[in-house]
Amino acid sequence: MRLLTHNMLTCNIKGVTKGFPLSIEVQKLETKETDFNPDFLKNIFPKLEWKAFHDAALSVGLNDIPEQVDPVMLEDSEFLQKFHHALLEVHLEEGALICPETGRRFPVSKGVPNMLLHEDEV
Amino acid sequence: MDTTSSADAGGGFIKPRPGVEHEPTAHLFVANCGPAVGLSLDTIKTVFSTFGPVEAVRPAGDSGTRVVVSFQNPEDAAAAKKALDGKKCDNLQGRVVFMQFSVFQPPSMAEEHLPVMTSSAGCGIPGLVLYPDFISEEEEERLLAAVDQSPWQVLAKRRVQHYGYEFLYKIRNVDLSQKLGELPPFVEEVVTRLSKLPELTKSNEPSLPLDQLTINEYPKGVGLSPHIDTHSAFEGSILSLSLAGSCVMEFRRYSDESKDESRIRIAGDKELGKNQMERRALFLPPRSLLLLSGEARYRWHHYIPHHKIDHVNDEVVERGSKRVSFTFRKVRRGPCKCKFLQDCDSQVAGIPSSPFLSNSESEECSHSDELDVETRPDTSPESSKDDEPNVEVFSKNLPQLETEQAVDEVGKAEETRHQLSRSFSHHTPEIEKQYVHKVYDAIAPHFSSTRFAKWPRVAAFLEACSPGSIIADSGCGNGKYLGLNPSCFFIGCDISPALVAICDQRGHEALVADALHLPYRSGFYDAAISIAVLHHLSNDQRRIRAVEELVRVVRPGGKVLITVWAVEQEDIRLVQKWTPLQGKYTEPWVDDENFKLHMKKSPSASSLDIIQESDGNGERQVDEEGPLVGKRDGEEGGRRDCLRSLSESDEQEISDSSSHPAAAGTTQEPHQEYFVPWHLPYHRAEVTGASVAALASGFARKDDKKGAVVYNRYYHVFAEGELERLTSKVKGALIVDSFYDKSNWCVILQKLQ
Fold first, then answer.
1. For residues B584 and B604, is the Cβ–Cβ distance under 8 A?
2. Is B587 helix (H, G, I), strand (E, B) or coil?
3. DSSP state, B442?
4. Quick check: B521 contacting A, CB < 8 Å?
5. Interchain CB contact of A63 with B (< 8 Å)
6. Among B48, B137, B162, B308, which residue is least crowded by beta carbons within 10 Å?
7. What is the mean pLDDT of chain B?
8. CB–CB of A115 and B511 under 8 A?
9. pLDDT: which is higher, B240 or B311
10. Any residues with CB less than 8 A from the CB of B645 and at least 6 apart, and which?
C-alpha cells in the first residue's frame, strides 16, 4: 500500500463521522522504484490532504516532506523527487491502518489492506 | 464427407476414413511406411512389385510415413492388401503396415499444393525477413551446448527454456511483475548482432532492448499449431533463430469472412472455404534467422506442420533429430496499438488467435498435452489430423464482488423504511456469501488465468480519462483493467482476498473491500468503474447501494462506467447451460410491506434449500462459457436482429423450462436469476483444499466427463432498460450514455456538479 492510497482511505464504519486519516502502524516497509512523472504529481497534488500525507510520511520514517506546502514548490525538482518517493515508492507491506475515531484496526498484510467491516459495523 | 484428401503434390489420392471400406482400386494407401521411417520409395516399390506391376509409389501427405502405391491392376492391389495389411512385413524392416484402397480425385478437388519458398522475398509478406546463415556452425554448436547445460521445462511434445520473463502458456502472456533476470550470457553476442539489424534500428522501432528469450526444442516430427504471438505480450519485432534442424514454416492469413465462417463451422459445417485463407510456406534452414514484424507479426499466423519430412519444391528434406529455436522478443508494457484490430487482444476483447473459435475468452486447456502449444487450436481440415484442439471456449464475464456484513434485523421492524432499506442493503445475503464470495475465493487463480482480454468499450472509457486521473475499479477481480491507462493511477478493490492477492502480485494497488461500502473518501476519484459486478448482487437495494457508492467516491463531473451481464445473450446456448433459480431469490424477512413496494418483480420467496440444480443441467453443458464476448463486426443493426431472435428463443426457453410461479402470467418477463457454472479442472482443483471441502459438503460437484469440479455462481442478469432504471434512482448523477456491448448492458453516469 502506497501513501497515495492511504490518502484516499477512510474508515466507513456506521456512525463514524471522522474516519480520515487512518493512522499507520508499521511492521514492514518496502521501497519499490516507480517511474518519475512530474505531471502526475502536479495533477494529484490538489487532491491530497497534505497534512494527512505529511503525517503518514512521518509515520513511515520520511521526515523530508514539509508540513506546509505551496503549489509553487511543484516547480522545484528536488521537492518533486521527495514527493514522488513518499507518495508512490514507499509501500506498507505489513502493519495496520487505525481508525482515528473508533480505534478499529484494519490489517495490512502482504501489501494489501483489508478494509472489510464486521457485521456489527455496517 | 467420408474422406480426407492427401496433400500429395503428385496428386489427388484420397484416404478413406477408418472403418470406411472402398471398392477395390489399383491404389493402396499405406500407412506406417515411407521415407521418414527409413523406407525409401524405391524400396517400397520393390516390395510391392512382387504382387504385380507397380506404376508409382508416391508420398501421401508430408508426414513421410504414408504412401500411395499404385498398381496397374486392382487385383494385384487387392492381393497385396490381403497379404500385408496389418501384418508384420519382413521386407519392410519388420514394420506392421496398414492399408486401404484409395481412389484418385480430380486435381481440382485435391488440396492445392503449397510451394515452399526459400527466401522471404518469395513469400511477399510485409515484415517477414529471413536471414540465412545468421550464425556460423561454431556458434550454433556453442549455443546448443550452452542450452543443454540449463534446465528444461518439459512440455507434452517439446521442451522449453524461458529467460527474461517466462511465457505463461495458460494465459499466453508474460507476467511483468515476475522478471526472471537478464538474458543469459551465452546469447550476448547474438543479441548484440540482432540489435544492429537494420529492421531494429529504424527510428520508432520499439523492439529494443530485447528482454525475453524462449528456447524451444522440437523433437523430429513435432510442430507448432498455427498462432499469432499474443499482441499484448510483446512489442516490436520477433526474432527466431533456427538451430540443429530445419523445418518448413507456414504462414496463414485468414480473411475476416473466414472468422464468421468459423461460427458456422462450429455449428456443424465441415469445410472452410480455402480461398478465405491465404497461405505461404518458407523453408527455415539451420542457422537462419527469421524476423517477423508489422503485418507478418501481427496479422499472419505461423505454423509448423507436425511432419518428419518436408517437401521443398522437388526435394524431400528430412528434418533433423531435433530443431532448436531461439526466439527473442521484447515484452510489451502497455496495450498494443497495432492496426490489425481483428487479431489484437489489446483492442478487441476475447480475441482468439485462431479464427475457429467464437469470440469468447479461452479457457485454459483441459488436456494434458495442451499446455505445450503457445496458441489457440486450429481445426482447419489439413491440420486437424495433427493438431489436437487445445482450448475450450470459455466464459467472458469478470469478477464480482461486494459483501456486507449482516445486521441481525430481527426485532428492528419498527425502524423507518429508509433505515430498513439501508440495513437490507447492508446485510449480505447468504446466497452472495455462498455463491459469489466463496466461489471466487475457491477458483481465484484459475479464474484469473482466464481473464485477460480487455473490452474495447471499457478500455475506451479508461483511455479517455485525462492524464493524472485517479480511477477506482470497484470489484476489480484479477485487476485486468488496473493500469490500462498508464497516465492514470488506478486503485482496485474486491471482496475476494484471493483475487486481490493476484492484483498485488501483478504490482497493482488493490485492497480488500466491499463495493457496497467503499473505504474511500468522497469525491476523490476522477472516474470509477464497476465491471461485471452488480449482477452478483441479489436485490435491487444492494445494486442501488453499490451504484450510490460509485457516485459518492467520484468528484463532481467525474464519470462512472457500469457493465452487467444481459438477459439478452448474443449466444443463447450459454443461457441454456445456466440453472434458473426457482423464483427470485429473496431473504425470508422481506415480506415486509415496505419492501414489496420496492420489489420490481413479484418475489416468490424461496430459500437456499429449494435452489437446486436441475438434473439436466450438466447434460446441456457443452463447455463452460460465459456470455459471448462479442460479435466482431459489432454492427448495431446485426446486433439488434440478433437480440430480437434471441429474445424470442429466450422466451421460448423460459416457457418450456420454467416452472416457477412468477413465470405464470408474466410471460413477458425473462428469467433473470441463475446459477452459472464454473468448471475448475481437476488438475487445478486437486491442489486446493477448498475444493475438497466444497465437494465433501456438496457445495461443489464433480463432473467426471469434463474432469472438473463444478461451482455455481449466482447471477442476476439484467433485462433491457433495467440498468438505466436502477441507476436513475441514484441521486446526484445523470446517465450520459447507455449501450449494449457484447452481451452486457452498460451505462456511463456523470456526477452532477
1. yes
2. coil
3. H
4. yes
5. no
6. B137
7. 74
8. yes
9. B240
10. none
Task: Give the bridge partners for B490, in sequence order.
Answer: B471
Structure-block grid coordinates of residue B690: 477448498
Percent of chain B past pLDDT 90, that is, above it, reads 34
Q: Does B419 touch chain A (CB under 8 A)?
A: no
| Residue in B554, B553, B555 with CA at minimum distance from that of residue B519 | B553
Cα distance from N-terminal residue to C-terminal residue, chain B: 67
* Dihedral (CA of A108, A113, A115, A118) sign: negative
Chain mean position to CA B31: 34
- pLDDT tens sequence across B167-198: 888 778 888 888 888 999 999 999 999 999 98
Q: What is the ipTM of this complex?
A: 0.97
User: Which residues from A are below 8 Å from B495, CB to CB?
Assistant: 116
Q: Residue range B684-706: average pLDDT?
A: 75
Domain A3-114 annotated CATH 2.20.25.10 = yes
Going by the DSSP 8-state scheme, the letter that residue B437 receives in this structure is: I
Cβ distance B174 to B168 under 8 Å?
Answer: yes
DSSP per-residue string spanning B299-363? T-EEEE---SEEEETTEEEE--SEEEEEEEEEE--S----S-GGG-TTTSTT--SSTTS-SSPBP
Q: Dihedral of the CA atoms B48, B49, B54, B57 (nearest 10)?
A: 40
C-alpha cell at B78: 487387392
Cis ω for the linkage preceding A21 (within 30 of 0): yes
A107 in reach of chain B (CB within 8 A)? no
Which of A11, A32, A112 is facing B510, going by the closest CB pair? A112
Instruction: Give me the residue spans of the domains in chain A.
Output: 3-114
* Secondary structure tally for chain A: helices H, strands E: 4, 4
pLDDT in tens, B10-22: 445 665 555 556 6
Give the neighbor-by-neighbor strand order of the sheet with B159-163: B128-131, B289-292, B234-243, B322-331, B212-219, B159-163, B153-154
B427 near B587, Cβ under 8 Å? yes
Q: Indicate the SS3 state at residue B253.
A: strand
A114 at B interface, C-beta within 8 A: yes
Confidence bin at B699 (pLDDT 50/70/90): confident
| CA dihedral angle for residue B593, residue B597, residue B603, residue B605, rounded to 10 degrees | -20
Residues 6+ apart with CB under 8 A from B369: B156, B157, B388, B390
- Facing residue for B468 by CB, picked from A10, A44, A117: A44
Read off the C-alpha cell for B335.
Answer: 496495450
Q: Indicate if the alpha-carbon torsion angle B55, B56, B57, B61 is positive or negative.
A: negative
**If you ran DSSP here, which 8-state letter would residue B214 be given?**
E
**Distance (Å, whole) CA B390 – CA B373:** 8
Residue B47: band (very low, low, confident or very high) from pLDDT cuts 50, 70, 90: very high
Instruction: Extract the C-alpha cell encoding B18.
Output: 477408418
Q: Does B509 touch chain A (CB under 8 A)?
A: yes
Q: Which of residues 488-507 of B touch A (CB under 8 A)?
A: 489, 491, 493, 495, 497, 500-501, 504, 507
**Separation of alpha carbons B560 and B547, rounded Å:** 9
φ, ψ at B98 (rounded to 5°): -125, 135
Q: Is the pTM of this model over 0.90?
A: no
Count A/B contacts: CB-CB distance under 8 Å. Answer: 90
- What DSSP letter does each residue of B4-21 carry, written as one string? EE---TTT-EEEEPTTPP
Report the pLDDT value the prediction gives residue B468, as an integer from 0 to 100. Answer: 85
pLDDT tops 50 at residue B710:
yes
Among B209, B335, B489, B527, which Cα is nearest to A35's?
A: B489
pLDDT of the residue at A67: 93
